[in-house]
Description:
Elements (H helix, E strand, L loop, with lengths): L2 E5 L2 E4 L4 E8 L6 E8 L6 E6 L6 E3 L7 E6 L4 E6 L8 E11 L13 E2 L3 E6 L1
Amino acid sequence: QVQLVESGGGLVQAGASLRLSCVASGGTFSRNNMGWFRQAPGKEREFVAAIKWSGSSTRYADSVKGRFTISRDNAKNTVYLQMNSLKPEDTAVYYCAADRSVLRTVLIQTLRGYDYWGQGTQVTVSS
């Protein structure tokens, strides 16, 4: 059973930075694409970023492009989300997700493309 545990959330002021981490266990992390999603109060969960199993390819939502960076360390079974220049509209619960398929060549940007989810970590950005 795959388990994902996020950490690194918190309360920051606009313009600040945070780095989220997600540690995976129980699966084949180094062969699975990973993603970050977020859900703000009263809104649907939305795609933020994704990274290929090899780390060679990434995708971002337009709203975070140029500010957020997704990366991974397969030796540590960890995926990161570096968030810079944070805005109040980035306030949400951030979820790490894993694609069950191994060695998938295409990065999926929808919720249905991911099979395992973490419990989420709260990010609050004050103005």
